[in-house]
Every structure is written in C-alpha cells, then in structure tokens.
C-alpha cells in the first residue's frame, strides 16, 4: 500500500467514472490538492463493464448539449493527459 498524504483539500473515494471525472474537473477548476482513492485499478469496477456507447441525440436540448460536451472532452482527453483512453469516434 502506498503511504497516504496527511492532508488533502479534497478526498475522492472511488476511481470509477464519477470519481475520475470529479478529480479531473476539480483540477481544471484550479484545485491543486486532490486525492483520489481506489482499492483496485482505476475504472475497473462497474465503469469497466459499461458498454461505452455515447449516443448524442436526445429529445431534451440540455441533455443533447451535455452529451456533445462529453464527446468533446473524450476527444481531447488523450492529448491533454498523455494517457491512452481508447476513445474511438464512430458514426
């Protein structure tokens, strides 16, 4: 087990899509002291089992906009972080 820091401004428990997204967006907002705790490997739980389909058209404009913003984020994450995401845009 890695030794944990004695202090963190924000502690996030769980490295699934919600935890990773929260950590990412907090750092984008300027938070420097964010600690993400995951007992196994990041996104290895229920997030890993999700199909990964991202449909972009919905009957509500707000949801369609949210999905469009998500796709734009997925598209730039690899170049932003230097980590392979496996994102492939089809259709």
Notes on the protein architecture:
The chain is mainly alpha-helical and 91 residues long. It folds into 2 domains: 7-49, no CATH class; 51-85. 41% of the residues lie in helices and 9% in strands. It contains 3 helices and 2 strands; from the N terminus they run E-H-E-H-H. It has helices at 17-28, 46-49, 61-81; strands at residues 10-13, 34-37. Strands 1-2 form a two-stranded parallel ribbon. Strand 1 (10-13), helix 1 (17-28) and strand 2 form a beta-alpha-beta unit. It is globular and about 45 Å long. The mean pLDDT is 89.
Concise description?
The protein is mainly alpha-helical and 91 residues long. It is built from three helices and two strands; from the N terminus they run E-H-E-H-H.
Task: Give the secondary structure arrangement, pairings included.
Blueprint: E1 10-13, H1 17-28, E2 34-37, H2 46-49, H3 61-81
Parallel strand pairs: 1-2
How many β-strands, per DSSP? 2
Helix-strand pattern: EHEHH
Spatial order of the strands forming the largest sheet: 1-2
Q: Can you give the helix content as a percent range?
A: 40-55%
Domain module tally: 2
Structural class: mainly alpha
Largest sheet: 2 strands, parallel
Radius of gyration based on Cα positions: 15 Å
Number of helices: 3
The low-confidence runs, each spanning 5 or more residues with pLDDT under 50, are: none
Principal-axes geometry comes out as globular
Strand content: 5-15%
Distance between the termini: 43 Å
Mean of the pLDDT scores? 89
């Amino acid at each position: 087990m890695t030794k944990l820091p004695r202090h963190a401004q924000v502690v996030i428990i769980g490295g699934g899509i919600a935890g990773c997204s929260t950590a990412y967006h907090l750092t984008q907002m300027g938070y420097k002291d964010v600690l993400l705790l995951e007992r196994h490997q990041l996104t290895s739980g229920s997030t890993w089992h999700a199909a990964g389909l991202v449909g972009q058209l919905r009957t509500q404009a707000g949801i369609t906009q949210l999905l469009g913003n998500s796709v734009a984020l997925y598209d730039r994450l690899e170049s932003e972080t230097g980590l392979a995401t496996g994102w492939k845009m089809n259709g």
